[in-house]
Specification:
Elements lengths: L1 E2 H16 L4 E5 L2 E6 L2 H29 L5 H14 L5
Parallel strand pairs: 1-2
Antiparallel strand pairs: 2-3
Length: about 90
């Protein structure tokens, strides 16, 4: 843990010595404000988040496929056209 003041005064040291080893918690007035992490850790977390999101979307699509298995494509097309016609415009 380091204070905002320490970060301002010793950024190069913190970046070179602390962040590469562990995430570094930054405190402002003794309250957690931010965390500095290495770029490698950021990429790892971003990829993990992307994988989790893909899995969640895939799961939702599977659930919808099961729920809609008895609905014809014609009925789906009608529902889509109805939604397009009656949905509020975002423009």
């Amino acid at each position: 843990m380091v204070s905002v003041t320490d970060v301002q005064r010793n950024f190069k040291y913190i970046l070179d010595n602390l962040v590469s080893q562990n995430p570094t918690l930054i405190l402002r007035d003794s309250v957690a404000e931010a965390v500095l992490i290495s770029f490698e850790e950021y990429k790892r977390l971003a990829n993990l988040e992307k994988k989790l999101l893909k899995n969640e979307i895939f799961s939702i699509m599977q659930d919808l496929a099961v729920k809609n298995k008895d609905i014809s494509f014609e009925e789906l097309d009608k529902d889509i056209e109805y939604a397009k016609k009656h949905a509020p415009s975002s423009r």
